[in-house]
């Protein structure tokens, strides 16, 4: 789909992320009402990421105090991937699935009503609808091919994109809390190069340790345990076995991310593994980055990778810029054993957040 370079999703991922301010208001409202000595950051992070995706798809977002519908839909976000049950499960699960599809359909209909073929698209839905019209050669929608697929694409993006990013951010905050030395080095780098000003994606150049930490978070978290199916395009041989053309294969990213061959001391959380410290300032190691494949690989790798990378960098660095993270109860350090499922998610945890700058200063800046 050919879309212009501008607007929200239709700009480059970095340009888009730096334009967005709504996620800041989500976390700002949260910290104003929450007890910062005993805080469960799970839902604020979930809503922050949900609003990023929601704004891209539909062009609007939900406030922290008006988000019950989002919370409801995310009660069982992965139920449709379970064989047989899928979207058409029983009882409450079926009701959530039906309501979600109805909600997505409603937003698509709103997009059709607001569609202006003479203006550049400003949401994913409007871009998709415009593309359908252009492919059809007339000013009408190709309902069978394009519109039918749009519902599935939007639903995939809306659910899968939110849960994976939110889980990775929660893992990041947990790992940073569990490793105070890493948090200290991030704070020192932020103090030296950023201070109180708003962090942008361009700051990756001056925040190599923070960026290396986020790469290591993705490696250790390894959130997506069930990867997308691929097919071989030609016959090949692996480990002495012949794999015919057209064979369905399932990449095991875990075998790469946790491999001692590619990542020495793979069981340890070591952001510096991604840094070439022989350079001043340190730079990221190209060979290590090539082995980091949390978004899968090949032509079926995650389509939302640019947005996902922007979310992780901006949200995590912005939180560390503003707060010192520690356990709410010093006797209860972070439990880094994951909850296994289709996603590998962190266990519930309560934080103590100590402000590093004032709320007034935060009001004049942004998370995204």
Automatic annotation (TrEMBL):
Heme binds at residue 302. Pfam families: p450. GO terms for molecular function: heme binding; iron ion binding; monooxygenase activity; oxidoreductase activity, acting on paired donors, with incorporation or reduction of molecular oxygen. Its cofactor is heme. Gene3D superfamilies: Cytochrome P450 (1.10.630.10). Keywords: Heme, Iron, Metal-binding, Monooxygenase, Oxidoreductase. Belongs to the cytochrome P450 family. This is Cytochrome P450. It comes from Toxocara canis.
């Amino acid at each position: 789909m050919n879309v212009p370079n501008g607007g929200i999703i239709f700009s480059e991922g970095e340009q888009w992320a730096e334009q967005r301010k709504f996620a800041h208001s989500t976390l700002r409202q949260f910290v104003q009402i929450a007890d910062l000595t005993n805080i469960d950051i799970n839902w604020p992070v979930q809503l922050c990421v949900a609003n990023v995706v929601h704004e891209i798809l539909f062009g609007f977002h939900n406030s922290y105090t008006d988000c019950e519908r989002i919370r409801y839909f995310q009660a069982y976000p992965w139920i449709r991937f379970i064989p047989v049950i899928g979207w058409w499960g029983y009882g409450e699960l079926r009701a959530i699935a039906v309501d979600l599809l109805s909600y997505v359909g409603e937003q698509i209909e709103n997009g059709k009503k607001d569609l202006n073929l003479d203006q550049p698209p400003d949401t994913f839905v409007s871009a998709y609808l415009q593309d359908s019209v252009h492919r059809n050669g007339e000013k009408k929608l190709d309902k069978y091919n394009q519109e039918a697929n749009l519902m599935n694409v939007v639903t995939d993006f809306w659910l899968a994109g939110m849960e994976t990013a939110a889980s990775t951010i929660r893992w990041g905050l947990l790992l940073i809390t569990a490793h105070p030395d890493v948090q200290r080095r991030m704070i020192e780098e932020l103090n030296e190069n950023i201070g109180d000003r708003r962090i942008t994606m361009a700051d990756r150049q001056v925040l190599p340790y923070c960026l290396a930490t986020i790469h290591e978070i993705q490696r250790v978290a390894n959130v997506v345990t069930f990867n997308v199916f691929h097919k071989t395009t030609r016959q090949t041989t692996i480990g002495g076995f012949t794999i015919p053309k057209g064979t369905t294969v399932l990449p095991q990213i875990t075998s790469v991310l946790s491999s001692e061959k590619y990542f020495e001391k793979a069981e340890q959380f070591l952001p510096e593994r991604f840094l070439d410290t022989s350079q001043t300032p340190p730079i990221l190691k190209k060979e290590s980055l090539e082995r980091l494949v949390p978004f899968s690989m090949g032509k079926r790798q995650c389509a939302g990778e640019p947005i996902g990378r922007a979310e992780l960098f901006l949200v995590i660095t912005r939180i560390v810029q503003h707060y010192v993270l520690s356990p709410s109860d010093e006797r209860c350090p972070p439990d880094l054993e994951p909850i296994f499922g289709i996603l590998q998610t962190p266990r519930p945890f309560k934080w103590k957040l100590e402000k590093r700058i004032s709320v007034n200063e935060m009001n004049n800046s942004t998370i995204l």
